[in-house]
Amino acid sequence: MLNILAKGDTWRRMKEKVNANFAYLIQLISEGTGVQGEKGDTGPAGPIGLTGPKGEDGAPGARGDKGDTGSQGIQGPIGLTGPAGSDATVTKAAVESVLTGEISTHTHAREGLTQSQILTRQL
Questions:
Q1: Angle 26-29-35 (CA atoms, 0-180°, nearest 5)?
Q2: Cβ(17)–Cβ(5) under 8 Å?
Q3: Is the pLDDT reported for residue 123 higher than 60?
Q4: Rounded CA gap, 35 and 30, in Å?
Q5: If DSSP codes are grouped into helix, strand and coil, which group holds residue 113?
Q6: Exposed, middle or buried, 110 (CB in 10 Å: 0-12/13-18/19+)?
Q7: Using CA atoms, how far apart are residues 120 and 6, in angstroms rounded to an integer?
Q8: Are 24 and 2 in contact (CB under 8 A)?
Q9: How far apart are CA 101 and CA 116, in angstroms?
Q10: SS3 of 59, please?
Q11: 23, 37 in Cβ contact below 8 A?
């Protein structure tokens, strides 16, 4: 009987099987089993086998190149006009009425003088 080679066979085991098969074929020939006959008709195809399990997902591909900049969109509608503002006329009297008292936090960086020192300073 012929020995069939299997996927997991080692080289040594395959060599043993081939040698045993060769010896078996020589034995058959020496016994006068006759000449091999013609090839027979092909049989019908067997049924389609079951679908195997899903394989593992592969690694993600490389990031693609940046696309071109699109064209500018259409201009939106003009907005509503806001309410009219107050009169922006500034007079000396209006400014002086707001500015009362001494501004003590202001200094001139070059000399480090306060406002009162500047006002009392003799030029």
A1: 140
A2: yes
A3: no
A4: 12
A5: strand
A6: exposed
A7: 113
A8: yes
A9: 11
A10: coil
A11: no
* CA torsion through residues 6, 12, 14, 17, sign: negative
Whether the model clears a pTM of 0.90, i.e. scores above it, the answer is: no
Q: What count of other Cβ atoms lies within 10 Å of the Cβ of residue 71? A: 6
Judged by phi (left if over 0) then psi (alpha if -120 to 50, else beta), residue 101 lies in: left
Q: Provide the β-strand partners of residue 113.
A: 108
pLDDT digits (tens, 9 = 90+) for 80-97: 888 877 766 777 777 777
What residue type is 122 in one-letter code?
Answer: Q
Q: Which two tokens stand for residue 2?
A: 């012929």
| DSSP code at position 4 | P
3-state secondary structure of 13: helix
- The pLDDT of residue 62 is 92
**What are the residues whose beta carbons fall under 8 Å from the beta carbon of 103, sequence distance 6 or more?**
115
Which pair of tokens denotes residue 30? 């020496």
**Position 63, amino acid:** R
